[in-house]
Amino acid sequence: MACSALVAAATLTACSDWDDHFDANSSVLDSQHSTLWQQIEKAENLKEFASLLKKTGYDEKLSASQTYTVWAPVDGSFDYDVLSNYSDARVLREFVENHIARNNYPVSGQIDQRIYMLNEKKMLFNGSSDYSIQGIKLIKPNMSSCSNGTLHAIDGKVPFLSSIYESLSNFDYPIDSLSAYVLSYDEKKIDESKSKKGPVTNGEQTYLDTVYYEHNELFSYYDAFINREDSSYTMVAPTNTAWNKAMTTVKSYFNYLPQFEFYEKPAEKVVQKVTLQDAAAMRDSVSKVAMYLSLIYNNNVYDNKKLKTLQTGEPLAADSLMSTTGTKMYSEDAANLFAHATRLDKSNGALWVTDDSLHMRTWTLWNPEIRIEAEYSNYWAGSSFVSNDQPEAKAVNKQNEEVLGKISNNYYLEVAPNGMAVNPEIYFYLPNVRSAEYSVYVVFVPGNINSKNFAGPLKKNHMDVVIGYADEKGKNVESTFKDIEPAVDSLLNVEGATAKIDTTYIGDITFPASYVGLFNSSSLKCAPYMRLRSRVSSKQSSIYDRTMRIDCIILRPKNLDDYIKAHPDYKYDRNLY
To answer: What DSSP assignment string belongs to 320-380?
Structure first.
């Protein structure tokens, strides 16, 4: 009786031909000496599966010594005719390698495992008496080894779930404008560590046996490896209509002039002429980079974790989202982005396909607010009539609590005159401005910012501001804003007056050309500029202070400035530049 039980168990678990559904002439010992391919080829109910294995070259792989486990769908349980018309590469990725894993995974007792298939998809293999792989039932489990692995027969095709990257590749959705951009960076590179080197010919290394790997520069550039199965991302995918509409807007901010002038040293009026080799191509390239910057979110960081469970039609309740490029989108804008999109689950996260518009406000990334910290010397474009020949960056380690407001970055720039009756001036570069209209502000600091014991009295500044830039024809022009008076003391002549950090409106200005990507802090200083010049006469010296104390310069897109005035509690990312 015991012998009979052992024989029965051996017959059940061997990699044999499984009762009447398969070739019953094969013995247990025969199966143990057969390869996986030989067993599959002989099985009467695996002819369709065997055909697709042969189509992709896996008849040879399953005949070799490498150990595999194969979950083979029986004939008639899957869409064989459809798969037969796919390209070999697609059949390999989405079907063949979706049913094979390295190593042995026999069936015994309770099973609850996550298994990586050859295409790196993770599948749930579980059960106790009835077993399944990713929900597909095992008709005939096999716990014995063939010479190179284990074979299970299953009742249907194991579902293939595309990664985000694969979804861009197969064009199942009307997002091929986005796909074309991402896939244009696909390339094959030689894996030198796995390739067999040959002789060096004409100074170049040749290979006797070359192994390649897939590479896409965008993955590292945007820190978004949407091809990796062990990652979790959310990607917003604009439809072609949405992409084209948004691109029209984005390109308006990146109008590059083929030729234009700029003052490399504005204080000295040193004119430089720039010629761009292909302004149109640069505009197109930079616009696409900008479009892609806020589309991908790592699901494992910050409040992005809420994206893991967010479903179509649900409101997003997140304080903010952080894109993989480090840009922040606060609750109002984040919720709006997903409110008009449809979630599609992927093996490494989710793809959210938009409706016919990409619901992203222009200033969230394409044309953001630009803040220039005045104390950063790489933004200084020269100065005149300044004490010690240059302005001085001063730290505020402990701000005087009697001063209203908060200084940014705990530093400000002090531009002090080099004489009693002298008016100093300072120039700043304004890098990365777009071809857009801005509301310009300068944040000024009162003299008592560092000490309660400031000798005083507090005085206002009085100055002229000039902004220089290239006009539509590429000629350098200047716009002048006169009689600017920052209110560093809110109630100057009233007893008990309180000093404040004052954000002073300078005026609105439209830059015809984009300067994005043209400013290098260590060499080329291609950017518009701003000059602040104190304008205090001798008779006014008791009223006005010639020393200018500057926290930062703000170039705020005009449409954002209007929105803030109507919605004073609106939150947005202020730290992009």
So the answer is: EEEBTTS-EEEHHHHHHHHHTEEEEEETTEEEEEE-SS----GGGTTS--EEEETT-GGGE
Q: What global pTM score does this model have?
A: 0.81
Concatenate the DSSP letters of all residues of 118-153 into one string.
Answer: TTS-EEEEEESSSEEETTEEEEE---S-BTTEEEEE
Residue 227, number of CB atoms within 10 A of its CB: 19
Are 100 and 129 contained in the same domain? Answer: yes
512-543: per-residue pLDDT in tens? 999 999 987 666 789 999 999 999 999 998 88
User: Do 25 and 50 share a domain, yes or no?
Assistant: yes
Which residues, in sequence order, are CB contacts of 254 under 8 Å at separation 6+?
282, 283, 286, 287, 290, 434, 435, 514, 516
Q: How many whole angstroms separate alpha carbon 445 and alpha carbon 407?
A: 8
Whether residue 215 contacts residue 187, with contact meaning beta carbons closer than 8 Å, is answered with yes
Same domain for 461 and 561?
yes
Is-contact 73 52, C-beta < 8 A? no
Evaluate whether residue 176 is within a structural domain: no
Q: Taking the CA atoms of 376, 378, 381 and 382 in sequence, report the sign of the dihedral they define.
A: positive
Number of structural domains (the chain) is 3
Whether residues 211 and 129 fall in one domain:
no
CA proximity to 286, closest of 365, 377, 173, 343: 365
Q: Could you check whether the bond before residue 457 is cis, i.e. omega within 30 degrees of 0? A: yes
Tokens matching residue 341: 């999109």
**Cα angle at 236 between 240 and 123, to 5 degrees?**
115
Q: Is residue 178 one of the residues assigned to a domain?
A: no
For residues 372 and 552, is the Cβ–Cβ distance under 8 A? yes
- What is each CA distance from 45 to 50, 156, 414, in whole angstroms? 10, 12, 85
Q: Which of 548, 360, 530 is nearest to 443 (CA)?
A: 548
Q: What is the DSSP letter of 46?
A: G
Tell me the C-alpha distance between 509 and 437, whole Å.
6
CA dist 492 and 530 (Å) reads 28
Q: What is the predicted pLDDT for the residue at 200? A: 83
Q: pLDDT at position 488, please? A: 60
Among candidate residues 361, 386, 412, the one where a domain is terminated: 361
Q: Is 196 exposed, middle or buried (0-12, 13-18, 19+ CB in 10 A)?
A: exposed
Q: What is the pLDDT of residues 217-260, one digit of tens each?
A: 999 999 999 999 989 999 999 999 999 999 999 999 999 999 99
Listed in order, strand segments (DSSP E) in 416-563 are 425-429, 437-444, 463-470, 476-484, 502-510, 529-534, 548-557
Q: Are 373 and 379 in contact (CB under 8 A)?
A: yes
Q: What is the pLDDT of residue 425?
A: 96
Residue 220 resides in a domain: yes
What domain range is 150 assigned to?
A: 2-154
Sequence letter at residue 20? D
On whether both 304 and 441 belong to a single domain, the answer is no
Counting as low any pLDDT under 50, the low residues of the chain are: 1-29, 490-495
Which region holds residue 196: left if phi is over 0, alpha if psi is between -120 and 50, else beta?
A: beta
